[in-house]
Design a protein that fits this description.
single chain; alpha/beta; Rossmann fold; Four Helix Bundle (Hemerythrin (Met), subunit A); 5-stranded parallel sheet; 4-stranded antiparallel sheet; 13 helices; 14 strands; 41% helix; 15% strand; binds 5'-O-(N-(L-cysteinyl)-sulfamoyl)adenosine; binds zinc ion
Amino acid sequence: MRAWPSPEIPTLPVAGPPVALHDTVTGQLVTTRPEGPARLYVCGITPYDATHLGHAATYLGFDLLNRAWRNAGHEVTYVQNVTDVDDPLLERATKVKVDWVELAERETELFRQDMTALRVLSPAHYVGAVESIPDVIELIERLQAAGAVYRVEDDLYMSVTADPAFGEESGMDREEMLRIFPERGGDPDRPGKKDPLDCVVWRGERPGEPSWESPFGPGRPGWHVECAAIAMRHLGGDFDVQGGGSDLVFPHHEMCAGHAQVAEPGTRFAQVYSHAGMVAYDGEKMSKSRGNLVFVSALRNSDVDPMAIRLALLNHHYRSDWEWTDAELWTAVDTLADWRRALALGAGAPAGPVVEEVLAALADDLDAPRAVAAVDRWARATLGTDGLADTSDPDAAMAVLTVIDAALGLAV
Ligand code: 5CA
Ligand code: ZN
């Protein structure tokens, strides 16, 4: 499907360092060494409600990775899906009496507008579950050929233990998996399953639900098989980074890896699994099911500068769990105003060290708060908020503007 227009990235006078990223599997920092274009897959939205700040924080985190790679001289092939048919979307459509296709299209369009306003680089391939059904069917057939699929009534399940590496991505033991699985779409107690952790790959047609023809009977894709099929189609095996929020560590990314690794034995799904922390509001994880949401579009509609939203999100490290407060948004508005005053001077404190620090911070596990602090120190030195104003570098503003645009995605 159509993505959103990508902002231009200005060219930096210096290349950024190689990018190190925290890997969920090993719990270590890994220096990524893409061969050819860096290949990134990030799990997209389920479009039944507007983009909230938790979603935005996650996509911004991976936007920093995309930018850090590009600034280090790599091309990037970025793929993102849209789960445009799944239980929560169909349930919401029924509840609000709106056609599910209409609801998905409307919310996907709003997401595009939010991403555009936040200056998030767009994916090269923005792919819906519905348009991927032929790829999903083909993947299920490969899983069948590997003997990893069985039927329970009209539904097809994949045996998770068919992947010898099952459990490696999340590093969880069975007890923990069994506890989390039902909270995140799993059905451990269904009679007829061989293993409670097995997941649906094809959900047979139910009355009143959309379905598509397939060799397994009419139905629709399971959730995990969707991302496995889309990633394999557009990135191939062993791609550089699989990303998403930490709520996807298990079962979603574990199962995606399992599907791909059973279909192509001997190949890893992704080299690195990267997860963003959860944003909370009112004391709990911001989630559609809990309803404690702050929407990006609502802030935009109340005239909040999208760059202030972006800066407020950048003030938190992508891996930390944190709670959104309005106070932080207003602090970001003030910070931006200071930066704008400093940048309007043209001359300023020496830009070289700021440029270097911003690029180094982002290459070090996307440490945006450290990069923001460096820019802030520069602005204070330039304005003399800390003492005497320093305008010794005649070209400072242009250099700082360029790096905050290229690396942090801020247009100020
Ligand atoms: N469509 C699936 C992924 S294939 C899905 O999880 N959709 S979603 O709309 O629920 O979430 C979209 C992305 O936002 C996912 O990467 C998810 O991990 C992330 N996300 C959801 N809630 C939060 C939150 N409160 N804080 C941070 N990230 C979040
Ligand atoms: Zn996904």
